[in-house]
């Protein structure tokens, strides 16, 4: 909200030397955010001048300029009674004797555009005669601003035109939160400034109501409110005031002071009647709309739109109306979107003489939905959807009527209407001590009552506290907590101490939370990059990695998805990683190692989810039964950790070929995850319908399958515009953590040397290398420190249908140096177990 200082000063006492910094500081103290300072961008000398002579001079380029002699006031130089300037001007809408605005050398106009004496068209132009656009007072730049046309023909020559035109003003911009719609007005912010500084506040609604009592009560104009489709049970219109002003002069210009204030407030000047409605809206916070009375067909009806109806709004767009739209209609049909924008058929034009002023009250939700549905935000809808004071509509309509009389020469007619259906505001019980208990500050009873009364609420002492009736302009005050917030705001946020709460003992992160963080930190330390992907998936994405066998699984479908094509909650993290890799590859990043830790939805077949009945009250902690019902209303949401590898793990360099990413990187990432929680995973060859045959594996923690690793099917990679080889990993992190030991014991480091041996065993192709290694390790016993597969050979010397597996074995004893015989005996014992279980034979 932009607040012109001079306008604010009409309703609250400001210091004579008020500055933008002072206004911002005062409003920040009562909860507004500082935005920016807005000024006209004009500095002097800018004066009133009178044209003494005007000589047209045709130029060779076909243009005719005027060589003017202009009196700009008393002279300060020796021997001259008047300061006469020669000025070149290309406009032709003025003549000798006209009073104009002259910008003298040294002045600066908006742009910035500095003014200096310069030679042009064979003359030295000692200044410039300004147009309305050059002064920021309108869009007309083809003609000079003649002061007589804006009611300033009596201004003395040489007078300061900046002050005369209201161009010496400035405005401060503050951010108004959605719950404080009353502050979208000079009236509201003047009240807030008074609360912050203690300055005297003069409520314009009160003073205007007293001054306008002599106006006739509007009556006789038919207005009907027929809302047959209320939203949330709330009627779309709860008030409608109509006033008629006849005989206005549509050619009269808007006064310069009004144009300047509106511009500082962020609204451009359109025409005098429209500017007046905008001016009153900014002043009082009540949006107004003016109709050309002569174009109305019969009375006005406020109702919901009907199927097939259209409306051409003031921006020239023909809009198809929705049955939920609240519209203003006459006998011809819709003539306006209520609270958003009027219709072109009844707009005020340059020939309008009789005006009907509308000051209405509309339901906030209805207006917000209409504005968003038609992508048509306006200053009016911005206020209505935040809440407008229902008590100010009659005052605002009368204020606009008086301005049309005073500035446009109209006459107020008795014709009009008043409709009001506003429910009384219920009182709120503010219990004794409630403010202190919520804020943590020992407020006295007088401080609490004084703060509540200061915001305009009526207060009555009752047993146990105060019965508070919020003012009509504060629809956001709905409970005792919102009243306590006002107490804290008015008494000063600086009274609230900054105290770091002490966490209760034993309530830090849970074991699962700590281990999840360890997993993410370990993967990041291993060189992977953590990402957060979209939690929504298409039907195909939801099914692609949900089941290794490719079976169709149930999914959770969102009722109101952001994207209609991605209406499922994800069942796997891999599709999101694929999309992220695609986006990075498109931007030239070819070597990627990505991972994500996140939750997915895995609904059970045939189960029904959703909350039966009303949700628990948010003002108190739900009971155990309520919490159990809430958790039962949502599907299982396990947490997964997934990784994806694209490009080269090791880049090409002198003497070293590139090492492409693939299944080995996925398995390494799985081992990093397992090691971070103190677990060992077992790898078995297994098929997955979305992974390359023979390049995929199942991962087990004990007997429980916890995930898979492998390489994407080339067809899937190609469809996603990824390289042919893409390594992927996905683990059920909840199951991994559940299988992890509670305590991880560190193994002592032996001081004795190790004995190393190699072992080559021939097994059938169908035999899993992991099973062979496990059998060898079991048979070798405690002396075997590690076993690692280093080669798998098929070819000469190995029977067809078999493979030679070579393992690197390391033996070590804790209490002695092993002999070669002891190491060999342990190895052979392992071979015996492997032979018994898998049919392995030592390769010759």
Explain what you see.
The model has no long low-confidence stretch (mean pLDDT 91). The strands form 12 sheets. This protein has a 7-stranded mixed beta sheet with strand order 28-31-32-38-37-36-35, with helices on both faces. A 5-stranded antiparallel beta sheet has the order 5-4-3-6-11, with no helix packed on it. The chain has a 5-stranded mixed beta sheet with strand order 13-24-15-23-16. It contains 22 helices and 42 strands. 39% of the residues are buried. It folds into 6 domains: 2-40 and 170-202, Phenylalanyl-tRNA Synthetase, Chain B, domain 1 (2-Layer Sandwich); 46-164, OB fold (Dihydrolipoamide Acetyltransferase, E2P), CATH 2.40.50; 211-420, 3-Layer(bba) Sandwich (Phenylalanyl-tRNA Synthetase, Chain B, domain 3), CATH 3.50.40.10; 428-492, Phenylalanyl-tRNA Synthetase, Chain B, domain 1; 511-607 and 630-739, 2-Layer Sandwich (BirA Bifunctional Protein, domain 2); 755-842, Alpha-Beta Plaits (2-Layer Sandwich), CATH 3.30.70.380. It has 844 residues and is α+β, with helices and mostly antiparallel strands.
């Amino acid at each position: 909200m932009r607040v012109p200082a001079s306008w604010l000063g009409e309703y609250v006492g400001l210091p004579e030397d008020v500055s933008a910094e002072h206004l911002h500081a005062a409003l920040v103290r009562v909860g507004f955010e500082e935005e920016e300072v807005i000024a006209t961008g004009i500095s002097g000398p800018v004066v009133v001048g009178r044209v003494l002579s005007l000589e047209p001079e045709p130029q060779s380029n076909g243009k005719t300029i005027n060589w003017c002699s202009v009196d700009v006031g008393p002279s300060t130089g020796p021997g001259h009674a008047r300061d006469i300037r020669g000025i070149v001007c290309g406009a032709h809408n003025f003549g000798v004797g006209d009073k104009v605005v002259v910008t003298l050398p040294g002045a600066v106009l908006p742009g910035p555009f500095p003014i200096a004496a310069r030679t042009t068209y064979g003359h030295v132009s000692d200044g410039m005669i300004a147009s309305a656009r050059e002064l920021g007072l309108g869009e007309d730049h083809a003609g000079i601003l003649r002061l007589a046309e804006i009611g300033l023909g009596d201004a003395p020559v040489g007078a300061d035109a900046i002050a005369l035109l209201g161009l010496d003003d400035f405005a401060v911009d503050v951010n108004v939160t959605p719950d404080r719609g009353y502050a979208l007005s000079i009236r509201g912010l003047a009240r807030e400034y008074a609360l912050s500084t203690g300055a005297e506040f003069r409520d314009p609604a009160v003073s205007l109501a007293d001054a306008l009592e002599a106006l006739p009560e509007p009556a006789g104009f038919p207005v009907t409110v027929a809302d047959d489709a209320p939203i949330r049970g709330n009627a779309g219109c709860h008030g409608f005031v109509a006033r008629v002003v006849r005989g206005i002069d549509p050619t009269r210009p808007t006064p310069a002071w009004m144009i300047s204030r509106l511009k500082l407030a962020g609204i451009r000047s359109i025409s005098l009647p429209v500017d007046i409605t905008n001016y009153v809206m900014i002043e009082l916070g009540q949006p107004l709309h003016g109709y050309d009375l002569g174009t109305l067909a019969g009375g006005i009806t406020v109702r919901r739109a009907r199927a097939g109806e259209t409306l051409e709004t003031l921006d020239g767009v023909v809009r198809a109306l929705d049955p939920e739209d609240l519209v203003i209609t006459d006998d011809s049909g819709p003539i306006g979107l209520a609270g958003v924008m009027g219709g072109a058929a009844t707009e005020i034009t340059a020939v309008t003489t009789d005006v009907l002023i509308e000051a209405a009250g509309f339901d906030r939700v209805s207006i917000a939905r209409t504005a968003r549905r038609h992508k048509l935000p306006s200053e009016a809808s911005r206020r209505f959807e935040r809440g407008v004071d229902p008590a100010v509509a009659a005052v605002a309509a009368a204020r606009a009527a008086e301005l049309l009389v005073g500035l446009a020469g109209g006459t107020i007619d008795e014709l009009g209407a008043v409709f009001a259906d506003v429910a009384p505001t219920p009182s709120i019980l503010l219990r004794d001590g409630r403010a202190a208990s919520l804020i943590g500050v020992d407020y006295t009873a007088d401080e609490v009552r004084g703060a509540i009364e200061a915001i305009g609420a009526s207060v009555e002492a009752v047993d146990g506290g105060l019965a508070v009736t919020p003012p009509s302009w504060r629809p956001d005050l709905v409970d005792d907590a919102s009243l306590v917030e006002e107490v804290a705001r008015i008494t000063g946020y600086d009274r609230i101490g900054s105290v770091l709460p002490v966490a209760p003992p034993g309530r830090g992160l849970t074991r699962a939370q700590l281990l999840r963080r360890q997993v993410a930190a370990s993967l990041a330390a291993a060189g992977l990059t953590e990402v957060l992907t979209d939690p929504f998936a298409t039907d195909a994405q939801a099914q692609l990695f949900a089941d290794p066998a490719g079976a169709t699984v149930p999914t959770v479908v969102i009722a109101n998805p952001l994207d209609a094509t991605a209406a499922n909650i994800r069942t796997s993290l891999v599709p999101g990683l694929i999309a992220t890799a695609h986006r990075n590859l498109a931007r030239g990043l070819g070597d990627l190692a990505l991972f994500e830790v996140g939750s997915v939805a895995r609904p059970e077949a045939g189960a029904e989810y959703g909350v039966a009945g009303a949700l628990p009250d948010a003002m108190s902690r739900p009971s155990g039964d309520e919490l159990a019902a809430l958790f039962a209303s949502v599907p299982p949401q396990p947490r997964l950790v997934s990784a994806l590898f694209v490009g080269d793990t090791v880049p090409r360099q002198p003497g070293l070929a590139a090492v492409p990413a693939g299944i080995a990187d996925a398995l390494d990432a799985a081992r990093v995850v397992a090691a971070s929680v103190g677990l060992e995973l077992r790898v078995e060859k297994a098929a997955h319908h979305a992974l390359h045959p023979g390049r995929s594996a199942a991962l087990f923690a004990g007997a429980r399958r916890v995930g898979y690793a492998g390489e994407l099917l080339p067809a899937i990679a190609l469809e996603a515009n990824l390289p042919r080889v893409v390594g992927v990993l996905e683990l059920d992190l909840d199951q991994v953590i559940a299988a992890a030991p509670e305590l991880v014991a560190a193994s002592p480091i032996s001081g004795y040397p190790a004995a190393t041996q190699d072992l080559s065993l021939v097994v059938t192709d169908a035999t899993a290398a992991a099973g062979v290694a496990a059998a060898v390790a079991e048979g070798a016993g405690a002396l075997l420190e590690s076993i690692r597969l280093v080669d798998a050979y098929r070819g000469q010397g190995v029977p067809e249908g078999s493979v030679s597996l070579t393992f690197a074995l390391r033996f070590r004893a804790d209490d002695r140096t092993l002999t070669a015989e002891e190491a060999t005996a342990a190895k052979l014992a392992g071979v015996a177990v492997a032979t018994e279980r898998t049919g392995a034979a030592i390769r010759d």
